[in-house]
Amino acid sequence: MTLTIVGSQLGDEGKGALVDRWGGDADVVVRYQGGDNAGHTVVEGGAEYKLSLVPSGAVRGTVGILGNGCVVNPKTLFTEIDDLRERGLDPDVRVARRAHVIMPYHRVLDGIEEEVKADDDAGDAVGTTGRGIGPTYEDKAGRRGIRIADLLDPDALREKLEYAVPQKRALVEDVYGLEIGDDDERAEAFDVDALHEEFAAIGERLADEEMTVNCADYLHRRSEAGDEILFEGAQGTHIDVDHGNYPFVTSSNPTAGAASVGSGVGVTTVGDGEVVGIVKAYLSRVGEGPLPTELDGDADEEALADDIREKGGEFGTVTGRPRRIGWLDLPMLRHAARVSGFTGVAVNHVDVLAGLDELKVCTGYGLEGEELDTVPTTTDRWERCEPIYETLDTWEPFDSSAVAEAGYDALPEAARDYLEFLADEIDTPIYAVGVGPDREETVELTNPFEE
Ligand code: GDP
Ligand code: IMO
Ligand code: MG
């Protein structure tokens, strides 16, 4: 059986926490898209782990796979593995030989393109994480990418670099009009010999540690042997390059269909399993783009956003940027539930909303005299949507550990009403409720591996 975990909103919904919780019942945890733009937090008995590439099952010792749909910065991967080893874990991570490699020039180009867009009236900076994600996926689609398999073959690697690197240098110098002199700190990113030496050595470490796999074949064999596979989505539905708020998106597909494409496990197998959308009980967004329910209208709203940001620790895991805050937006959740086919949802951060004076939920949008129940397709139209709110009862702070232990009925009545309202509106059952960051601070209604 498979379980696919998908971000329902704009990333940072608490996917890592649920992957860790349910990962205890999985035999393999697979990332199927994205790269080290992700920051997934696992808290176990007060110890906090922030993972960018190592799949979140590692904290429980479950083998982790970076699927063919991922873009991998091997240097980040090794640093993360080494750091986890120093903390006493022994992460077993395998990387698909078909996965694409984030090269140093991809990171440089990510930065340059963001600066150029910010300075150009016609361009819109996305507020990327600067990890080179977009440029790497561009090269993958442009059939000039470097794959993990190429790092294992020094001749193939040299050939690919000799083709790609002069093009990247020309892009920087001739299109963006920037000089990269020999003493520029970015010079090595455009030096074929230096890149070859560094990445051939990375290939040797990957080979020595037997870290590379034929992902589709490996997962097929594990599945045939009856093993349970957990797919760990990164990012979220509304920053999906196809289904999200284009162009303020990441360059991959966090939605559930990509679990199949990005791993080589057939769609029927993924579709036979469970697909759980992870929902934050309010909204947060890092980076640019509209947010119709954003709490930024006046000083009172800004104070409330500050309060939620502090209580919820809403600062980017990867970049440390403060996250923008908004009320829960049901049109966004309907879209997410439809495009991924959620069989259940887990709603996190219910503790963070305790003790508010007022609680609002957006049930639809008003646009040009019409009422919409889902998200329009363009940024321009979404930006002009006026949220239609319903005000619900608030609840008082509660003891998260005690509630998690006692179960769903121990939650304050108003919190249960809020959750049931949400579940009804998107016609999807609630599998779990997050009442704190720790593994034990989750109220579980259904364990998807036992469905
Ligand atoms: P991810 O990217 O979806 O894995 O989420 P992040 O790790 O970037 O951000 C979620 C943050 O919220 C982390 O600091 C988690 O430890 C924390 N968290 C997860 N679930 C809950 C919850 O139910 N309540 C609270 N207060 N924090 C939570
Ligand atoms: P997790 O997995 C939240 C956002 C960036 C930016 C846009 C594009 O932790 O939920 P990119 O570097 O991917 O090209 O940036 O996407 N973004 C995320 N926001 N959570 C994430 O990951 C994100 N990964 C990328 O802020 O707006
Ligand atoms: Mg995150």
Automatic annotation (TrEMBL):
Active site positions, chain numbering: D12 (proton acceptor), H40 (proton donor), K140
One function term, GO molecular function aspect: GTP binding
Binding site for Mg(2+): D12, G39
Compartments where located: Cytoplasm
Any GO BP: IMP metabolic process
Pathway entry: Purine metabolism; AMP biosynthesis via de novo pathway; AMP from IMP: step 1/2
Family indicated by similarity: Belongs to the adenylosuccinate synthetase family.
Name recorded for this polypeptide: Adenylosuccinate synthetase
